[in-house]
Structure formats: structure tokens, C-alpha cells
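Weekly structure sync, notes
Attendees: PL (lead), two postdocs, one rotation student
Agenda item 3: pending single-chain targets
PL asked that the sequence for the first pending target be pasted directly into the notes so everyone works from the same version. It is reproduced below exactly as submitted, 200 residues in total.
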Amino acid sequence: MLQPIEGLGVAKVVDSTHSNFKKGDLVWGWTKWEEYSIINDPQMLFKIEDTEVPLSYYTGILGMPGLTAYVGFYDICAPKKGEYVFVSAASGAVGQLVGQFAKLSGCYVVGSAGTKEKVDLLKSKFGFDEAFNYKEEQDLDAALKRYFPDGIDIYFENVGGKMLEAVLSNMRLNGRISVCGMISQYNLEQGDGVNEAIGR
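Predicted structure, written out during the meeting:
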């Protein structure tokens, strides 16, 4: 029998025996994507207190992607005004937020993405200073040097592999890397990249 997909969602409580939730409450968190669900362990559900914003925000900026971007950028990277920031997979739910946080912090920010449309979106809608299509770059190291001639202060890592290897040789002294994901490596039997990082 097919099982429903599980993921982030917004739901309305239709009945509850749990002391934290009552009928009519709106919640966000880890749910099944189906019309009705029975949730026996609500540890990953959070009551929505503010309904003045669109409920979809709780699966984005006010939910897991927003928290991941905020903590990964501000707590891990501790940005300073004027620093140089690179975000890989920058058009994703987390990456686009990191880029906007970087701009709000007064940083120069460049993102990479895999299509011209995503690159255009990063620059026109999300305010990135520059963006490039990594698929069109023969040499990632040269691409990074083109956008960061003085090096990278902060790298928000979503890709891994060859991109990470290229970034490591372009990091500035006291640079910081927040590792959020390594999408290029998830389906490989043996990982690639970061072969020459030791001793640089």
C-alpha cells in the first residue's frame, strides 16, 4: 500500500487529547501530506501563534528553512559588514535566505545555481550582488577567483564535492564555512572532491 509523503506542512487540529493542542489550533512542523493525519508523537509540531502572515511562511522563512539559514549564517558564520560571502545552491529554500541575510548584514554576496533562470532570480529578486551557473563553468576555481579576487570570508555550503574543493583554495584567513548540505554527494557510492585540501 502506498504511504503518504512526509515533510514540512501546516495543519489544523480537528481533535486532540494532548494538553498542548486543542481543536482549531493551527500548527506547523513534520506532517504527512494527506487530507487527515493521526499524529501520536507531536514533538515535531509547533503551534502557530501569529496568523497575520500567510500560513505558507511557516514552511519557509518562519519554519525549518528560515531557522537553518538564520542559525547557519548568524550563529556559525558570525558575519561582519563588508565581508565576502559565497552561497552554493543559492536558489534553494535555505540558500536564497542566506543570501538575503548576507545583504542585510552589509556583505558582498555571490551565489551559484544550475540554470540561467535561477541565476537571474538570485540577482533580480533576492538581491545577490552576483550569481553564476556552475554548469557553464569549466573551472570552478577560476570562476571563484573572478568573483572573489581577494578571497572568500564566508562560505555557506550546500553542494560539497568539486565545489567545496574549489572554495577551500579561495578561503581567506579566518574564513568560516557553515555546512548545511552536500547535495552532490548523496547518491554517490564513493564521494568526490576535497582531495587536495590538506596542506593548503
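Discussion points:
- The helical segments are 64-77, 93-104, 116-124, 140-147, 161-168.
- The mean pLDDT is 92.
Action: rotation student to compare against the earlier draft before next sync.
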